[in-house]
Amino acid sequence: MRAAPVLPVAIVVLAFSCAQPAYGQAPECQKALDSCKAQCAVDHKDFVSSLGPRSNYQGQCEYACTQGLTPCQEQDSANACETFFTRCVSECPWKVRELYTGTEYENSDPFQPCGKACATGDRACKATPSGNRTRTGSFDACVDGQAACYAFCMAQEDSASSFPDDCARACHDGVEPCQEATVDRYRCGRFFANCLDSCPDIGIDEDFGEPYAESREGQKCGDSCKEGERFCDRILK
What we know:
By secondary structure, the chain is mainly alpha-helical. The chain has helices spanning 27-51, 57-67, 69-74, 80-90, 111-126, 141-154, 163-173, 175-180, 184-197, 216-236; strands at 202-204, 211-213. It has a two-stranded antiparallel sheet with strand order 1-2. Helix 7 (163-173) runs parallel beside helix 10 (216-236).
């Protein structure tokens, strides 16, 4: 694992409205939070056995879960669970430290179990009846596209490789052109095109002028950009 696996770009955090729906109005979101935290506790036992009893993994994992709650509550019912998942994954840790000394544990990869906890919350969310709820918060489709792109990048990836940083950078590079589009229907397409331009190992076919992946990393980054475009479109509708 890299000595300081800090992502080059941060997922932009939106300012949400102060009014938060009560638990009864978004029960699936609370269920997502509870299930996500429960999975954090289960996986913490693995870190306890391998790293010692005082790692800060559980606290970091639970923090990621909590970051999905309010966006989930303020999102419409059709997109709430996926919003919980992408916002949760965006906050998953890349390193684990000893609680009291701050010493970073070597050879730990907390991102993947944290992502699993977020996915557990997502499944619990989708399994909970939610009714038909309209959106109450303010959302930027370009930023949510970035979050979805990032979550797809990171799935089952080795944090010791350069791919997570490269793919995260590509997701980031799609945001500003998306936001600069003056017509909504062009926003998500611009996110995809600029994200893809920043992906590693993407070539251009000389005969047709179409992009193609030259490696597994290029393919996955391109797929991540497409996932970001898809969720961006969902938020705009």
